[in-house]
User: Fold Pyridoxal phosphate homeostasis protein from Rhynchospora tenuis.
Amino acid sequence: MATPAVAEGVSAAAVTALRVVLRRAHQAAERSGRRPEAVRVVAVGKTKPVSLIRQLYDAGHRCFGENYVQEIVEKAPQLPSDIEWHYVGHLQSNKAKTLLASVPNLDTVQSVDNEKIANYLDKAVAGLGRKPLKVLVQVNTSGEESKSGINPSNCVELAKHVKHSCPNLIFSGLMTIGMRDYSSKPENFQTLSKCREEVSKALDLPQEQLELSMGMSGDFEQAIEMGSTNVRIGSIIFGPREYPNRKQA
Assistant:
């Protein structure tokens, strides 16, 4: 267990790192001809303690994300209710209701990659009587079997399903993880942008209304320059992940 002095140092470093990330994100937005506020920075606290997230909250940040249901349902009730939570990890259908019931201030699920999970979320929102939930369709743009996400060729059909068959969900755009080594030739970002064009045309929605969630710690500036409206930043804010007993869901 860290001593109070060490914990304070870690918190101060995270606050400083967050400010650096926000500045870099704003500069990247301006380079792409957009206003800084057009890009959301989701601080992803995977494996990190509530106390550290609270320090970033106290420094003024309000948008946080988690990858695991177990973590977000434990952390969210211990933190202020005006936090805008984003669930960014793979979601099993049997945990959809638990997620929504435990986190009333869950703003968005960014990882809808099949009709089944969309249907479960839709039913859970209706059953709980909560406000409609924003969702992003996750697209596997890298073709890696280890990555979740729908094939790009099927993203239009899933987007149509969410918009037309899930009245308690708000289809808000697309998300991708991409490949870590795509730094100089980010085909995954280009693929997601193309998917947005196709979905925009199919649903008769302006592209500007559809989010592009792409970019993480290693490539977020390039992602923003290529049109990302939402970046998910973890390790360069919070430090390396810690997995003492890795058994999450």
Residues 4-31 form the longest helix (28 residues). The mean pLDDT is 91.
